[in-house]
Design a protein that fits this description.
single chain, 516 residues, Serine Threonine Protein Phosphatase 5, Tetratricopeptide repeat, 22 helices
Length: 516
């Protein structure tokens, strides 16, 4: 018998037995001290003081005691159901809904409160809360049986309430439909279930059987055990809520804990490490397009735990979280990744043994736009103007940089080109063209940026504007030099790069020193 079965049986047994020998439902305890104390605890949930938290374990214990020993009150049963979810997640919810179903099916006339209006209010308290937790970010792939039973309970509860309350019955249909959608999505993406409970039990046995760490061997063994149990724990958390910040934080903390330096590589930056198979990555992309984000996050987090240098996975998890509108979880992925990249500079440029990059172009753009700004100020990326009044090209460029990852490079260039075509002077045309070059550089399209920057550089030299537009002259030179550092060198580019280096030594020696 599973923990979920035991939980459901326990609470069903409580409501099956009468409160006393002479009365199944006991007494109305609405004005009792116990009921008022329980109501006071629950009122903390609506408190304006954010530091006040509901003690759901206490609510569970007190509600259970009232239902067992004093009164079969529908309000208390609803409170207990929600407390069970808070303490036991979906196994607890299954037990609570099963209990409510039994009470309404078999003892409706005997329940408290007596008035239908008050009973409807009790159900109206819990149903909106249930709608908020039964959402697409819940992964049910490994607990399908539980959700099938939950769906059956809601269907039966809906029928019995409509039978007793008619048109006044609270609306359960949206919850039923959502459960059906979740179960259908799980059946379409069915795969071999994982025995998480067995993994946790085995690892926990190993963890607690080892009393001390006395040498390097013990330390490595203890770390491996911690990593195993962490992986199982994170999977469990993500199964309950795919946007759980704790799981995302813990997985990354343990993942990169022992990495202190970039892996060895050859001159082409190719390492001996193996990444994910092409088929696995293709499957993830297909599932993302289908919108199965919750299950996808669970599986991708497992792949990330086994392949710490698969940086595309970090971006794909972030995009899945974005699709679920999980802002806090997105920030957690960004910050953890930023701290790792700051600690191991240059690691994103490396490649797996087959030449596949640790981070493809899309991931590199995502890192620049969303990840690294957490640890490196993006002053060089956003156009600045010392006068305080930014010109139009700087304002539009900054907007395009912020939207680059979401809308793509083509959209950004189209917008900048629209402004370029309506420029009223050669100076305006120059700076709109410069903005296009900058957005190309930002998007890691270095060859495109190089072509644009070389044309602008020639324009500046031809007209002798390095004295009249010194900031633009230096910025063009810096970005052009950066492009030559990024693209594969040939004889011509080496000569150009040397010329740019000498120019920077003359006009911006401090920047050259910072590079060396």
């Amino acid at each position: 018998m599973t923990h979920s079965d035991t939980l459901s049986e326990h609470y069903l047994r409580i409501v099956q037995c009468p409160v006393s020998a002479g009365s199944y439902s006991g007494n109305d305890i609405r004005f009792s001290e116990e009921f008022e104390a329980l109501e006071t605890r629950l009122n903390a949930e609506q408190s304006i003081l954010r530091s006040v938290n509901v003690d759901w374990l206490k609510v569970r214990e007190e509600s259970e005691r009232i239902l067992r020993d004093q009164s079969r009150d529908l309000r208390v049963a609803c409170w207990l159901t929600w407390a069970l979810y808070k303490d036991e997640a979906f196994p607890g919810l299954l037990a609570g809904i099963g209990m409510l179903r039994y009470l309404c099916e078999h003892h409706w006339p005997e329940l408290y409160p007596a008035k239908h209006r008050t009973r409807i209010a009790a159900l109206a308290w819990i149903l909106p809360r249930l709608e908020k937790i039964l959402i697409d970010e819940v992964s049910i792939k490994q607990q399908v049986t539980l959700f099938q039973l939950l769906s059956e309970h809601f269907e039966a509860l809906d029928e019995v309430l409509r039978r007793h309350l008619g048109e006044e019955a609270p609306l359960i249909l949206p919850i039923r439909r959502q459960l059906v959608r979740m179960l259908q999505a799980a059946s379409q993406n069915e795969c071999k279930p994982m025995t998480i409970a067995a993994q946790v039990k085995e690892v926990a046995t190993q963890l607690f059987s080892h009393s001390s760490v006395d040498n390097d061997k013990d330390a490595r063994k203890a770390l491996g055990t911690q990593q195993d149990i962490t992986q199982s724990l994170c999977v469990w958390w993500l199964k309950q809520k795919a946007t759980d910040v704790r799981a995302l934080r813990l997985n990354r903390t343990v993942l990169w804990l022992m990495i202190d330096a970039a892996p060895a590589c050859n001159a082409e930056r190719i390492t001996s490490l193996r990444g994910l198979s092409v088929d696995r990555v293709s499957d993830y992309k297909l599932r993302f397009e289908k919108g199965t984000y919750a299950d996808l996050i669970v599986d991708m987090e497992l792949s990330i735990a086994r392949s710490p240098y698969w940086f595309d996975g970090q971006r794909m998890v972030w995009e899945s979280l974005q699709a679920l509108d999980a802002e806090l979880s997105m920030r957690e992925v960004e910050i953890q990744f930023a701290l790792f990249l700051q600690r191991i500079p240059g690691i994103v440029e490396l490649r797996f043994h087959d030449g596949v990059p640790f981070a493809d172009d899309a991931t590199q753009g995502w890192i620049s736009t969303y990840v690294m700004p957490h640890v490196i100020p993006a002053q060089s990326d956003l156009a600045q103007d010392n006068t305080g009044d930014q010109p139009a090209w700087n304002i539009v460029l900054n907007e395009m940089i912020q939207r680059l990852h979401k809308d793509g490079l083509k959209s950004a260039i189209k917008e900048l080109a629209r402004h370029l075509s309506s420029a009223k002077s050669e100076r305006e045309r120059f700076f709109w063209q410069f903005s296009i070059a900058r957005i190309c550089h930002r998007a890691k399209k270095y060859e495109l940026a190089r072509v644009q920057l070389e044309l602008l550089d020639q324009q500046l030299e031809r007209r002798g504007l390095e004295c009249w537009e010194p900031e633009a002259f230096l910025e063009v030179s810096r970005l052009l030099y950066s492009c030559h550092e990024k693209i594969p060198p040939d004889r011509v580019s080496r000569v150009t790069k040397d010329e740019l280096y000498r120019r920077l030594c003359q006009y911006d020696f401090e920047a050259v020193l910072n590079k060396t």
